[in-house]
Design brief:
Elements lengths: L16 E10 L4 E10 L7 E3 L2 E4 L6 E5 L7 E6 L5 E7 L3 E5 L6 E9 L2 E10 L2
Length: 129
């Protein structure tokens, strides 16, 4: 059983399945609990691959490997949080780039490739601890 007193608690499920999840909130008047069964169908993927770019592992904890076999320069990898904020903007300087993501909060992010004012979404990336 996992519990948290964090304001924005995050939990990483270990794999697909149905999980029974409860949320309890308390204030000066008392507490209230709501429980639901959640069906988790997938937990990340081995890697993101689109536009000739591969980002792995997914989920990631500390580092990402970005492989861009047809690299021609002038590209950045953007990681965007669920609020639409760019939280990481890394220039891709060669075919294989290692990116440190250990400073990011656990959760879901969108990976985008950016060049010459154009963005292409590569997919969803999970950061876990």
């Amino acid at each position: 059983q996992n519990t948290s007193t964090d304001t924005n608690a995050v939990h990483q499920f270990t794999g697909p399945g149905t999980y029974y999840v409860c949320l309890t909130v308390c204030n000066s008047i008392g507490c209230d609990t709501m429980c639901r069964a959640l069906e988790i169908k997938t937990v990340g993927t081995a890697h993101l691959q689109q536009a000739g770019v591969s980002v792995s592992p997914n989920p990631a904890s500390d580092f990402l490997q970005v492989d861009f076999p047809n690299f021609k320069g002038g590209y950045n990898l953007l990681l965007i949080n669920t609020l639409g904020q760019v939280v990481l903007n890394i220039p891709l300087l060669e075919e294989h780039t290692e990116v440190y993501v250990g400073q990011l909060q656990p959760g879901g992010y969108f990976a985008q490739l950016f060049s010459d004012g154009q963005k292409q979404t590569l997919g969803k990336l999970m950061i876990v601890r």
